[in-house]
């Protein structure tokens, strides 16, 4: 069963694909059937630079447990970073 629940957001970062590093501006997060992962359903994350075409994309398919673990690890790290490093990190 597909949920069709998708979150899209603008992001500011970089990702590394086959052609090397590129600036990513868009992200999509959704729970659906994977293309490659062996699970029946995965949390899928796409980091994209639409203006560079379809090759400027990094995709992840994570098992539900791995997705939760990754989300908790990200939040744990971000909560430990001093606020002045986060607030002052706009280049």
Features:
single chain; 91 residues; alpha+beta; 4-stranded antiparallel β-sheet; globular
Describe it for me?
With 91 residues, this protein is an alpha+beta fold. The protein has one domain. Helices cover 24% and strands 42% of the residues. The protein has 2 helices and 4 strands. It has a 4-stranded antiparallel sheet with strand order 1-2-3-4. A hairpin with a 2-residue loop joins strand 1 and strand 2 (20-32). The longest helix is centred in the C-terminal third of the chain and has 17 residues, at 64-80. The model has no long low-confidence stretch (mean pLDDT 92).
Q: Calculate Rg over CA atoms.
A: 15 Å
Helix and strand element order: EEEEHH
Number of domains: 1
How far the N terminus sits from the C terminus, by CA atoms, comes to 43 Å
What count of helical segments does DSSP give?
A: 2
What average pLDDT do the residues reach? 92
Shape: globular
Largest sheet: 4 strands, antiparallel
Tally of strands: 4
Low-confidence stretches: none
Broad structural category:
alpha+beta
Give the DSSP E fraction (strand runs of 2 or more residues). Answer: 35-45%
The proportion of residues forming helix, as a percent range, comes to 10-25%
Strand line-up in the sheet with most strands = 1-2-3-4
Task: Write a compact overview of the structure shown.
The protein has 91 residues and is of the alpha+beta class. It contains two helices and four strands.
Can you lay out the helices and strands and say which pair or pack?
Blueprint: E1 6-17, E2 20-32, E3 42-48, E4 57-62, H1 64-80, H2 83-87
Antiparallel strand pairs: 1-2, 2-3, 3-4
